[in-house]
Amino acid sequence: MHLANRLNRLGTETAFAVSAEAAAFASDSNKVYPFHLGDMNIKTPQNIIDAAFNAATAGKTGYCPNAGIPALREALAREISDSRGVAYTRDNVVIQPGGKPSIGKFVLTLMNPGDEILYPTPGYPIYESQIEFHGGRAIPYGFIEGHKNFELDPGAIEDSITPRTRALIYNDLHNPTGAESSSEEMAAIAELAIKHNLFVLSDEAYFDIRYASESQSIAALPGMKERTVILYTFSKKFAMTGWRLGATIGPKPIVDCVAKLNVNDESCSNHFIQYGAIEALTGPQDGPLEIRQTLQKRRDIAVAVLGTIPGVRCYKPNATFYLFPNVTNLMKSKGLYDDYEKFRQRVMYETGVSFCTRAHFGRVQDNESQRYVRLAYSGIEANEIEEGLGNLKRWAQE
Ligand code: PLP
What we know:
398 residues; seven-stranded mixed β-sheet; alpha/beta; Aspartate Aminotransferase, domain 2; binds pyridoxal-5'-phosphate; Aspartate Aminotransferase, domain 1
């Protein structure tokens, strides 16, 4: 069968393969501690479910406007204006079936084949996939492990900019590292974008999953609103991963193109769910608060246990629901420094602890000497975190 050549350039999320392997292991009566998927085992707040259900019962079951229902676009424009400190109207908002579609639609709207887009690796693997699938060149930039955070190197990023560079993908509050930019770092990235006339996709999937201090958006910095496209999602803050609802927010000419892509791709996002999203934004906020508190407790337990495991070093991020411990010494002590997959599988088969490694988050670069794994604590209860990481500790001590 001759499939289209472009499929050779399409990547995927290999975390789903880890999930399948963990499920197969569990089905043989083995205990699995699921740290691998960024999904959530927390239920969506009931008021949101009720609002969507009522809308469906009231007949909101047909097509709706391609860019989303006006009341939701309006509510989201208000929410983003307030939380980011940038004035948006509903003309700047186009509703999407999730946060993820904003990535490909950003690329399709702003990149010509042969253009270059800077993206983080480690990072969400769909960036690399979408840039290359649509005929662009994905130019990686990495992080430096600091004492309390992973940091960017704006000088190194600037060195990678060429006359073909069109855009930069920036995921502050970062999957998988949990990294957050200082104000200075964010200002330096903005300065680069302005100096080199780049568009920025600001992936703000974890903007509201924060346990201390406040999130900032690069869109709020001077000169940035007109060149920034925000990826927004309802998935994390409201525990709505399976509902598939998000938005692309940015300059009207870009948003209008993205709405036209909506017409071609899915016609519109699910109609009655958008009423649930209005309730999420404008109704009581104790649901998302409880979600954050649950996650914070899990983070604290995980970081505390990881801190006692020989060969493991892990800082405590203020945001996201991921930890990205440095496991270089543990991999070395087990003779597995050069094989992420073998290390991951041995840990799962011998301790039940299932996680993704750095290799699941974009291409590993030649200059990476440190080794990392990603633990997601959004889909595992606190007592299981303690038990699973206790197993990992005993294994590390053997
Ligand atoms: N961006 C990042 C950094 C993510 O981690 C995710 C999901 O895990 C997404 C975007 C996509 O979010 P959604 O599930 O709403 O499509």
